[in-house]
Amino acid sequence: MNLNAVNDHQVLTKSQLRRSLIKTRQSMSVGEWREKSDRISHLLQSSTVFTQAKTVLAYFSFRQEPDLSSLFVHTHHRWGFPRCVDQSLRWHSWIPQDSLIINAYGIKEPDPQAPTIDPEEVDLILVPSVACNYQGYRLGYGGGYYDRLLSSPEWSKKPTIGIVFDFAYLPQLPIENWDQPLQAVLTETSFHVNS
Question: Which coenzymes or cofactors are required (predicted)?
Answer without folding.
Answer: Mg(2+)
